[in-house]
Structures are given as structure tokens and as C-alpha cells.
Design a protein that fits this description.
Helix 2 (35-48) runs parallel beside helix 8 and helix 3 (59-69) crosses helix 7 (206-216). The protein has helices at 17-26, 35-48, 59-69, 90-94, 113-125, 145-154, 206-216, 239-249, 252-270, 304-313, 341-348, 360-381; strands spanning 52-56, 77-81, 98-102, 130-136, 159-162, 170-171, 174-175, 182-186, 199-203, 276-278, 285-286, 292-296, 319-320, 336-337, 349-352. The chain is an alpha/beta fold. The protein is globular and about 70 Å long.
Length: 382
């Protein structure tokens, strides 16, 4: 029996990455910054349609800089989607501000616009200062941006768009990362493209990106000696990592097609399993399907954890959906506005292997093991 490892989402090289990295070595551009960084930023700008980009060491660094540029400080509040990875919320604490968490809606699993406005009205009534809203495009599915943007504009609150999982997705044909005051991208090893580690900050405002680059290179003043008038950070992407990114950008469109094909395979081959529900694309929404995710109906005698453990037993990696931030020990004491949606998603949701380098036999094996796990669980429950 084939028991080789099937990963959730592993890096997938395109082949030209070595060319850009080799050029960096040949020209001795091994130190941070250099032609690959400039080229990678230009590639991101062209792909997203956002005129300015700063390549950084991580998506978390990009989000931290966005909050700094918005003047977030101690005593301020930042509204954040609860159903997400902790990197969406951690930078709020870096700035000594207070996160205010918002639950999700079922159409996209992202921030609920109704709860968002309720939270804003309540925080303002309590005389709180709200400096930013962080919306996340979870698993590549766009959030309900029209409603969220209207609310943000109505109350004059800057919007930060966490598109770490959403590169290549579109909302009514407009690329994710291009809607907010700032857009955040991630190139971690499990993302749709990778620079081994890395991220980017996007903005229409050239001056803001220039400030971000300044802060990300230790905030060194213009002087012949090392002089610093404010706190800086070591957040810039290296020329080597950016070379990997340039090669990855050349295959990004192909990677999106491959990830979406994975999702369609799961949908077609598990559709007869009435206990499985897939996240659908609403009209006008286009997801890169970074991860293919399912919800498991516990009323059918099986649950998410039994399926996950069965897959793990045969060397197939899957993962529960994100545990909501308001249920995390570090964030449990902060304000939360919700109705139980994200808690239910976490309880019943599972991410299936979704890498663009999966073979047809890998996908068939995953489907077969899910069906066998279900049948075995049902027999055990009889």
C-alpha cells in the first residue's frame, strides 16, 4: 500500500527560481536588497494593480508596519477578524493597542459586516478610539468587501486588507490586496507561492510605502554615519529570497489553476457524501482555493477529528480550520462581537491537502481514505 507522505500545502518550485538566485550570487548581491527585490516588487505591483509595494521579511512584518503607519499606539483599538491565524492579530499587541474581534458569516467565512457595524457603534458609544479594521480573506475566499468598505468609509476608519492567503483571488474581477489603505501578502512556505519566508506591503500611496521601507531598514536617517531618530525594524526581504519570488511569480497563474482544480476534484468525488459541505463562491467572488476546506455534519455519526486522525494514520496531512482568536488564551480577555459562527466552523471544519504539486493519485488516495474513514466510523457507531 502506498503510504508516502501527502502534505497539506508544500512549496512548489517552477524552475526559474535558480536563475534569479544564481544571478544574485554571480553579481554578489547576497546582502539584503538588490535587483531581485526591485524586480519582485514590480512583479507584485503589475499582478495586483497596486502601484506601490515593499517586499518584506514576512506578512506579519507588513501588518505591523501598516499599523505603525496608521499611528496605532497604546490605548487605541483595532478591529480584527476573529476567524484567522494569530499573525493577523499579534501586531496589534506589538503596538500596545487593544484588539476587538468580529465573528464571521457563513457565505465566505470572513468578517460579518453586520457585526462589524454593531461593534463600531458600541465601541464609539464607549468613547473608544478605533484606528483600523483588519479584514482577512480566509483560505483565498474574498470577504464581502463592498459592505465592509462602505462601513469603514462611513465611520472614517482605515481598512487593512490581510490577503496573506488571497494572492490571485479576485472580488468582482479586482485583485485582492488592492482594496484597503494597505494590503498585506505572505510568501510563507505553505502559501500559493513562496520566497521560503517573506511578505509584502501594498498601497496606492507612494509616500506610505517609502516610509515603510525606511522603517523596515532600521529607520536609518540620511547621514554619512549611522544615525537614527526613531525606532526601526529589520523587516526587509533579502535579494536571495526575492529571487525565488521572481521565479514563483512566473508560475502564479498556473498555481491558481492547479489549486482550483484540486478543489473541483474533491467537490466532484465527494459530492455524494451528504455529510460533507464545501465553501461555495458567491457570485462575483473568485477564490484561488489556497486550501480546499470542508465542513463535516456531525449528525451523520462522524466528526472532523475522527476524519483528521484517520488521514493522519495513513500519512496524509490535514488540519482543522483556524481556531478563532477570541477563543485563544492570549486573546480571550479582549472584546468580541459574535454569534458562534467561527466556533462552529472550527469545531466542524477540516483543511484537505491542497498543494499545486499534488498528483492525481494523491487526490484519489485522499478521497478514498475519507470515504473509508466514514464507513469505518459508521460501523463502529452501530
Amino acid at each position: 500500500m502506498n503510504n508516502s507522505k501527502i502534505w497539506l500545502s508544500s512549496p512548489h518550485m517552477g524552475g526559474t527560481e535558480q536563475k534569479y538566485v544564481g544571478e544574485a550570487f554571480a553579481e554578489n548581491w547576497v546582502a539584503p536588497l538588490g535587483p531581485n527585490v526591485d524586480g519582485f516588487e514590480a512583479d507584485l505591483q503589475n499582478f495586483t494593480g497596486v502601484p506601490h509595494a515593499a517586499a518584506l521579511s514576512s506578512g506579519t512584518a507588513a501588518l505591523h508596519l501598516a499599523l505603525i503607519l496608521l499611528g496605532v499606539d497604546q490605548g487605541d483599538e483595532v478591529i480584527c477578524q476573529s476567524f484567522t491565524f494569530s499573525a493577523s492579530a499579534n501586531p496589534i499587541l506589538y503596538c500596545r493597542a487593544t484588539p476587538v474581534f468580529i465573528d464571521s458569516e457563513y457565505d465566505t467565512w470572513n468578517m460579518d459586516p453586520v457585526l462589524l457595524e454593531e461593534a463600531i457603534l458600541d465601541r464609539l458609544a464607549k468613547r473608544k478610539t478605533i484606528k483600523a479594521i483588519i479584514v482577512v480573506h480566509l483560505y483565498g475566499m474574498p470577504a464581502k468587501m463592498s459592505e465592509i468598505i462602505n462601513i469603514a468609509n462611513k465611520y472614517g476608519i482605515p481598512l487593512i486588507e490581510d490577503a496573506a492567503e488571497g494572492l490571485g483571488s479576485r472580488y468582482y474581477n479586482k485583485p485582492l490586496g488592492s482594496f484597503g489603505k494597505f494590503g498585506i501578502l505572505s510568501f510563507n512556505g505553505n502559501k500559493i507561492i513562496t520566497t521560503s519566508g517573506g511578505g509584502a506591503l501594498l498601497s496606492d500611496d507612494q509616500s506610505e510605502i517609502q516610509k515603510a521601507r525606511f522603517l523596515a531598514t532600521q529607520a536609518r536617517d540620511s547621514a554619512p554615519h549611522y544615525q537614527h531618530s526613531q525606532v526601526g525594524y529589520n523587516y526587509r526581504m533579502s535579494n536571495i529570497c526575492a529571487g525565488i519570488g521572481r521565479g514563483q511569480m512566473e508560475v502564479l497563474d498556473e498555481r491558481i489553476i492547479q489549486r482550483r482544480a484540486n478543489h473541483e476534484f474533491y467537490l466532484d468525488n465527494l459530492k455524494e457524501m451528504s455529510w460533507i459541505e464545501f465553501l461555495k463562491e458567491p457570485e462575483g467572488f473568485y477564490s484561488n482555493r489556497w486550501l480546499s476546506c470542508i465542513l463535516i455534519n456531525r449528525d451523520n455519526g462522524v466528526d472532523r477529528e475522527s476524519i483528521r486522525l484517520a488521514l493522519e494514520k495513513v500519512n496524509i496531512e490535514s488540519r482543522p480550520l483556524w481556531k478563532p482568536m477570541h477563543k485563544q488564551p492570549i486573546f480571550s480577555s479582549y472584546p468580541f462581537y459574535g454569534n458562534g459562527t467561527s466556533e462552529n466552523l472550527f469545531k466542524n471544519g477540516l483543511c484537505l491537502p491542497s498543494g499545486s504539486n499534488l498528483k492525481l493519485d494523491d487526490l484519489k488516495r485522499v478521497v478514498n481514505e475519507i470515504k473509508q474513514a466514514y464507513n469505518g466510523q459508521c460501523l463502529n457507531n452501530q
